[in-house]
Amino acid sequence: MRMSRRDGLRAAMAAAAGGALSGCGGDDGGPTEKWRMPDEAHPHELTYMSWPTEKIWGPYIDDVRDDIAGIARAIAEFEPVVLLANASDVKAASKACGSEVDVIPIPVDDLWTRDTGPNLVLGKGGIAGVDLNFNGWGDKQSNKRDREVAREILAEADIERIKAPIVGEGGSIEVDGKGTLLATESSLVNDNRNPGKSRDDIEAALKRLFGVTTVIWVKGVKGEDITDYHIDALARFSEPGVVVMSVPDEEAPEDVWTRAYDQARAVLDEAVDARGKRLEIVELPEPFDIGDRGENFLASYVNYYVVNDGVVIPRFGDKRADADAKSIVADLYPGREVVQVSVDGLGEGGGGIHCATQQLPKSA
């Protein structure tokens, strides 16, 4: 009997899970063996995304759904995409995204799968998913369904769940796959997520959960956006030892964001990674000529997503900046095709391509 696309995806996920993982712990306290979160350029089995709801986006829903469908179609040119949608939205989401995107009925509130989904880690037992106990970015938004997304994805894929002893989101961490993790204090060392926990407490949990030995903290910004300033809009590893940073335009006025960049840049210029080496910083300038945007608009090219043989990056309409960003990213990822997509709807919601995606890495 011919295997359907859905059956093929399930088989791939089951293979990635590596069968029963007797040594991973689970709901009662986390892993009992060493796990490692690979960098995003590690080969993927597939990408997870979520279909936005009118409840959250209201009059902006059509534009945002167009963005999500465009991103899903772009990624599907490189690897399988599994998109979560409420049962009532499955038909519409399938029509918008096309036959190459597999839409499955898992309840969602919003589209930010980077934050709501599991963070997949590899180990001798195969693969497991870290559930960072999403709480609506510190209870800023009611997301009853999204709080269960990580658990639902892992159950659907038959992957072991590691319940983290801390609260956070996938966008709050960035790893090089070789023992180094970047994070903002404003997001994780925050009473709206981890009351009573010190930075040292949280760092110890991050090291254990993601198999890192070095955590580099930047200060970030509390209370100015819903995420309390995620690292994935500021700085990313393009490879071990190389950090690409979102750089404000030289004409941008001094504000909390430019000051946060200055503080982070000073830290990263002096930082040493897990291998004992200083970091190379590559600047990725932000666009400037993008017209009238809302105060929460995220104009960061750094919020790109690495896929198998490609990189999907934003396009903001500043022709020179868009072209420069594509060229810089192409140099950072030689041999990968760089594809630009419009994300104006997502940008108005304070997010981007990376925020809307979560990878399932290959386990071998």
What does this structure look like?
The protein has 364 residues and is an alpha/beta fold. The protein has twelve helices and 16 strands. The protein has helices spanning 5-17, 54-57, 61-76, 90-97, 113-116, 136-139, 149-157, 185-188, 199-210, 256-270, 319-332, 344-348, and strands spanning 44-50, 81-85, 101-105, 119-123, 126-131, 160-163, 173-175, 180-184, 214-218, 235-239, 242-247, 280-285, 305-307, 310-315, 337-342, 358-361. The chain is globular, with a radius of gyration of 19 Å.
How much β-strand is present in the residues? Answer: 15-25%
Read across the widest sheet, the strand sequence of neighbours is 3-2-1-16
Can you give the helix content as a percent range?
A: 25-40%
**Major beta sheet, specifics?**
4 strands, mixed
Q: Please give the CATH architecture.
A: 5-stranded Propeller
Pfam families: PAD_porph (PF04371)
Organism: Stackebrandtia nassauensis (strain DSM 44728 / CIP 108903 / NRRL B-16338 / NBRC 102104 / LLR-40K-21)
GO molecular function, one term: agmatine deiminase activity
Enzyme class: hydrolase
